[in-house]
Structure formats: structure tokens, C-alpha cells
Amino acid sequence: MAAQQVNLAKVFSTVVTALASNRDTLNQADTYNHDHGDNMVEVFDVVAQAMKARKGASPADQLAYASELLRQKESGSAKYYAGGLTQAAQQFTDKRVTRNNAMELIQTVLSGGMPTSAPAPAPAGQADMLGSLLSGLTGTGQTGASAQSGLDVGDLLNAGLSYMNAKQRGEADTTAPMGALMSATSGGNAPYRAQSGAVVANALMQAVGALASKNR
Fold first, then answer.
1. Which positions ≥6 away from 67 have C-beta within 8 Å?
2. Which of 9, 166, 171, 208 has its CA 20 to 30 A from that of 216?
3. Domain spanning 8-214 has what CATH number?
4. How confident is the model at residue 212 (pLDDT cuts 50, 70, 90)?
């Protein structure tokens, strides 16, 4: 039986909820404009609403439409995630998003559309996702950025792998590994961006993990 198609509107609505819960913390972490939390909620609300508006369209069309709307926004975060959505639209042309390939979508969205590579060896299918997770959260396409920003690649890998292993074991509480990831990214040049990226990654992985649990 074919794998069930992922409801993108629901997945990105999960991200909006997670960001809204962390809005004040992200605003406080933004020592420049004090509105990063507000911007991130707006960004992913636009994405979720775009998915709903194009509910009957293909995933590629939904993702492209969301990207188009984000490009009309002023914030750097909007433009960053617009890049990831554009690449995801190209990646999923003539393809459905299912629980089997949803990690590819997460990888691409978090990368901001930038080229990525795995920072260290990992099991098949996990290395690419973790590589883009690193580059996405640091806002660069180069794994070498970890040395410049103070990020600990080992912590990032362990957090991501622990998360996925916990989901495979069917554990309900998988927030701790992603909390470790958030702590690891706090040394970046723009800690509040790393922090919001971790919230987005956590929410997306939680949504995909829930799909996997329902289909076991």
C-alpha cells in the first residue's frame, strides 16, 4: 500500500504553534530589534496559510506558493526560509511528500536553499539531514562554519541522532535531544536565529515522528 501523503498545512501549523509558544523568549534573545519571535511566527503562519489556500494543489505548487509569499516580506528570516521552500518545490516536483521522504523536506527547508553536506559519517538517510540541519541552523552552507561560530558538531549530531533513535523506539518524550541541539547552537553569531531554527527543527521532526508512530 502506498504511503499516505503528508498534510503540509498541518505540519507547518505545528511549527507556528511551537514558535508562538517561544515568541517571547525569541524576542528577548534578539538584542537588535527584539522582534525575531514575532517575525518567525509571521513567517510560518504565512507558510501554513499558503498550504491551506493551495490545499488541492501538488506539494510542489504549495511549497512554491509559500515561497512566493515569503519573498514579499521584508525580514531576513522570511527570505531565508523562502529559499528553502523554493528548493523544496523543485525537489518535490511530480512527487508526493510522505512519511518516507518527509525528512528530505525538513532538510531542504532548514537549509534555506543553500548547498549542504554531511558534517560527519552517519547512517544512510540521516547524514544528509543532519548536515543540512547544521548548515540551516547556522545560516551557512558550509560545515566549516561550526569552527567559526563555536558550534559543536558532535553535539548537533548526537542531538539529531538521539532524536531519531528515540522516535524509532517509540518514545514519546523526544524534546530533550533537540534541547541539546538548541544549546549547542547558542554560540552562533546570531544566537536567536539558531534558537528559532532549533524550534522549527524540533516541531518539524515532532510532526514527522508522529506520522511514523501512527503508521507503525
1. 82, 83, 85, 86, 89
2. 9
3. 1.25.40
4. low
